[in-house]
């Protein structure tokens, strides 16, 4: 009997994109997230990325009424379910601020249920007729970038409106990120889907990283989650409805692209907080 070919080597990171519809009902949202983690676990994912404001969302504006502490029900659920399944989770939430305003944050939980870190959104969405700063406090621009190891690849975090600021992505890449995740609740409007796709692609090409831009589905958001390769190729693009999809990220492609396009090595400027 001839020898059977060896199975293909598994890529370093299997990523599940969780494009969820989020409401102002926190208990219902937690159940949606729990099911998403189960789906990611069945797909043998290493990492599940959920949208901005995954704990609770109001398309008219999300503020202190949706805030929960890091030891509250939402992050506790993430930690418990990550420890149960072994799936790391990155998700948007809202933390308490100064009472009048809250903090838009992204939490990263490892596959053993530990809280790896918190990114507090630096660039608030005061644009296109919106005023996040009326309800939210900005995170400190000089806070250390949130970068965590997932199955041997370094994953860095920014969120939503940060995507429009290339220095935000570059600072995370300077901290070692090979994959840039961007939880978002991208607001609809003229040209907004084109901006989303173009900006995500630009951040991938200029930094030679994978960009996983994960949006919300539902009222007040566009969906259209994306996974863009370091060469700018679109590996995944979802529509405007809730959906979970799993993709494999190839570290060999990343190394190959960086060898052919050494823009990070050739750069002449550094990014520092203003």
TrEMBL record:
Residue span(s) of domain CN hydrolase: 13-251
A GO MF term: hydrolase activity
Pfam families: CN_hydrolase (PF00795)
UniProt cross-references to InterPro entries, sorted A to Z: C-N_Hydrolase, C-N_Hydrolase_sf, UPF0012_CS
CDD domains according to UniProt: nitrilase_3
Stored PROSITE patterns: CN_HYDROLASE (PS50263), UPF0012 (PS01227)
Keywords: Hydrolase
Matching PANTHER family: DEAMINATED GLUTATHIONE AMIDASE, NITRILASE-RELATED
Similarity comment text for this entry: Belongs to the carbon-nitrogen hydrolase superfamily. NIT1/NIT2 family.
Protein name: Carbon-nitrogen hydrolase family protein
Organism: Cellulomonas denverensis
């Amino acid at each position: 009997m001839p020898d059977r070919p060896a199975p293909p080597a598994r890529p370093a990171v299997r990523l599940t994109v969780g494009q969820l519809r989020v409401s102002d009902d926190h208990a219902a949202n937690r159940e949606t997230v729990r099911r998403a983690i189960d789906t990611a676990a069945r797909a043998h994912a290493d990492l599940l990325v959920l949208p901005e404001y995954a704990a609770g969302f109001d398309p008219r504006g999300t503020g202190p009424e949706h805030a929960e502490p890091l030891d509250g029900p939402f992050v506790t659920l993430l930690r418990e379910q990550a420890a149960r399944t072994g799936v790391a989770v990155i998700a948007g939430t809202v933390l308490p601020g100064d009472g009048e305003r809250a903090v838009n944050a992204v939490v990263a939980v490892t596959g053993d249920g530990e809280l790896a870190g918190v990114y507090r959104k630096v660039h608030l969405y005061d644009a296109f007729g919106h005023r996040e700063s009326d309800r939210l406090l900005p995170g400190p621009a000089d806070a250390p970038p949130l970068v965590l190891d997932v199955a041997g690849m370094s994953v860095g975090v920014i969120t939503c409106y940060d995507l429009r600021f290339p220095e935000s992505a570059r600072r995370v890449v300077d901290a070692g990120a090979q994959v840039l995740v961007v939880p978002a609740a991208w607001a609809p409007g003229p040209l907004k889907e084109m901006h989303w796709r173009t900006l995500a692609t630009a951040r991938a090409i200029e930094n030679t990283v994978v960009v996983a831009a994960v949006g919300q589905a539902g009222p007040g958001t566009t969906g259209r989650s994306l996974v863009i390769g370091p060469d700018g190729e679109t590996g995944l693009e979802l529509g405007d409805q809730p959906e979970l999809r799993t993709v494999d990220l190839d570290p060999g492609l990343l190394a190959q692209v960086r060898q052919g396009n050494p823009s990070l090595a050739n750069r002449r400027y550094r990014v520092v907080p203003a």
